[in-house]
Specification:
By secondary structure, the protein is of the alpha/beta class. The chain is built from eleven helices and 14 strands. The strands form two sheets. It has an eight-stranded mixed β-sheet, covered by helices on one side. A six-stranded parallel β-sheet has the order 3-2-1-4-5-6, sandwiched between helices. The mean pLDDT is 97.
Length: 345
């Protein structure tokens, strides 16, 4: 791409299509509005029912509403689609948009298992489109600072990482119903796992030991996972749908520690060797469904920067990162005995 064309692109807003009119899509759209309108614009929203899309469009001042995902896929005025459907539908929805040559930012987990993740990644490659799993945590200023501190050896050689995420959400159907992709690992444990994976630079653990128990619905309620890495480095994480945990994380090295106070999945503070620094997120213009959701602005800006550079994946949350998460999730679920219908196909 010549420099003139690149300049023209950088002067245009990234045009977003929102797929699904649910709670997470609401928060993502609110987060986008904290960014300059000359950089990010929401041009369309799609839901399975037209009235839901129209209601969402009205609330967020979006010009176009569609009553099907297929119509959104056909819209020529969209640069990238944010996929906010629940994860059992990630595979079919991502394939729909990527086969229509649309770039995609898909909510976590990218898919139900490794097999589905591989299918999504292959489709992105085949269609030569950008794809990223929306692991928003990695793009928070606090997370950027963690990576900088680790790269500079601020706490010496990291020997232990601990992370936890526990919230009492047994009353939420999508958290506990198997056909909705419920279970602690895929819903919230992924945040703990991605954090460990980030600290250890995407290295595959040498040993995975998981213990936990399942609900009557067949999904995991609570689990504790121990990971052993090369050079005698360890990690442990706990996730639970049944109880409130401190929801913090710690990185312990030979020369000090980095603490991430609650909420570790959307961090707004770091304590480095006892010294605390705040990294606040912007205020929302509408009430949010989830805490610190305006922090989704950082992953959205990453998508824009990747598109401007003509990249097909982000170095911060790469396709290899998504594949590693899925492989570890599969093994953890196998050990605890969680089997989804998608595992049997």
């Amino acid at each position: 791409m010549n420099s003139t064309c690149q300049f023209a692109l950088s002067n245009m807003a990234t045009r977003w299509g929102i797929c699904s009119a649910g709670k997470i899509s609401h928060d993502f759209t609110v987060a986008l509005k904290t960014l300059p309108p000359e950089d990010h614009q929401v041009v369309a929203v799609a839901a399975r029912k037209l009235e839901d899309a129209q209601k969402f469009a009205k609330k967020h001042s979006i010009p176009q509403a569609y009553g099907s995902y297929e119509e959104l896929a056909r819209d020529p005025n969209i640069d990238v689609v944010y996929v906010g459907v629940i994860h059992p539908y990630h595979l079919s929805t991502c394939l729909l948009f990527m086969n229509a040559k649309k770039n995609v930012l898909c909510e976590k987990p990218l898919a139900m298992n490794t097999k589905e993740v591989k299918e999504i990644l292959a489709c992105a490659k085949r269609n030569d489109v950008f794809l990223m799993e929306a692991v928003w945590t990695r793009f928070f200023p606090a997370s950027v600072e963690i990576r900088r501190l680790l790269a500079q050896g601020e706490v010496g050689e990291v020997k232990m990482v601990r992370s936890e995420f526990g919230v009492p959400i047994m009353h939420v159907p999508r958290a506990v119903e198997k056909e909705l992709g419920g279970g602690a690992m895929l819903d919230i444990g992924i945040y703990c796992l991605q954090f460990i994976s980030m600290v250890y630079n995407g290295e595959k653990p040498e040993c995975i030991q998981a213990t936990g128990f399942c609900l009557e619905t067949g999904v995991d309620d609570t689990m504790v996972v121990t990971l052993k890495f090369s050079k005698n480095r360890m990690a442990v994480f706990t996730c639970s749908l049944g109880v409130q945990l401190p929801n913090d994380a710690i990185i312990a090295g030979t020369k000090g520690t980095i603490q991430i106070p609650a909420h570790m999945w959307c961090p707004t503070a770091l304590v480095v060797n006892g010294k605390e620094t705040q990294y606040p997120v912007p205020e929302p213009y509408l009430p949010l469904n989830f805490i610190n959701s305006t922090g989704m602005r950082y992953e959205a800006e990453e998508v824009r920067q990747c598109l401007l550079k003509g990249l097909k994946e982000s170095a911060v949350m790469s396709h290899a990162d998504s594949l590693l998460l899925a492989e570890v999730e599969d093994e953890v679920r196998r050990q605890v005995g969680v089997v989804y219908s998608q595992d049997c196909q």
